[in-house]
Amino acid sequence: MNYNINSNARILIVGDIMLDHYIYGNCNRISPEAPVPVVEITRESYTLGGAGNVLENLNALNCHADIIAVVGRDDNAAIVAGKLADCGSRADALIYDAARCTTVKTRVLSSNHQMIRLDRECADAVRDDVADQISALLKQHAGEIDILILSDYNKGLLTPTVLAEVVAICKAAGVKTIVDPKGLDFSKYQGASIIKPNRKEASLATGIAIHDQDSLERACIKIKETTGCEAVVVTMSEDGIAIYENEQLSIIPTKALGVVDVTGAGDTVIASIAIALASGYSLTEACDFANHAAAIVVSKVGSATATLAEINQMFQA
Known about the structure:
The chain has 317 residues and is α/β, with parallel strands linked by helices. Helix content is 35%, strand content 27%. It has one domain: UDP-N-acetylmuramoyl-L-alanine:D-glutamate ligase (3-Layer(aba) Sandwich), CATH 3.40.1190. The chain is globular, with a radius of gyration of 20 Å. Keywords: Kinase, Transferase.
């Protein structure tokens, strides 16, 4: 089948935005100062990461999306703002906080080999005044959106207070919320529509070792009881995607033919589910669509994206 995606669907992301900074170079010698490799830099690049990668995936699917996120008041924030402008996202939904730094992950690579990663971040919970700005922005735009994605990377934005306020605003506006969770306590996502952990996250959050269909179902039931959500979607890498909805568990087998890099695959899945649901497809159909999108992404290097043309070509193969 061919999926017909509604390019006019309105999706908003609230979550931890990051900047992925790549430094490429050649490494041919060891430093005389210490037993460490010397990398001669040839080029650098920046891409949006974290919740920003969800945005990039939606753009690749021809869906315009906006994001509410917090950055520092620094040079890296200006790069993030420029990247969001390139995506056509609203500039007024980026909240600047001088007390924080913009989250940046710097990776040094030589001959396609990652030698080191350097992280710059502040994972403290956002202040009350920042939380109030998030709520005000969401209230302003809630009536304009079809789906809201909560992209939690545990960097301090999605506190229990912020989550409760966001979910309440969305419920009042009739907006479905989909969560990509982090941490052990899923109760903070109480009231969200769909919870989408991976298998490891689901196991850690429930205390249930997932090793077969029975333990998987018990974990899904516990997540549903903890959060009061409508459905649970568990991504399971080579074992596909599990859906627990209407007290029934179903599993969609993986479509991946060759795995090169799983970086960002979770972002692809949640973005694909959101746009498919916003286009009128059922959750099962949306997960099948996401399964194909993820198969394309894991066959590429880095935080890649999948286009609608690539996905539909997979369905025809």
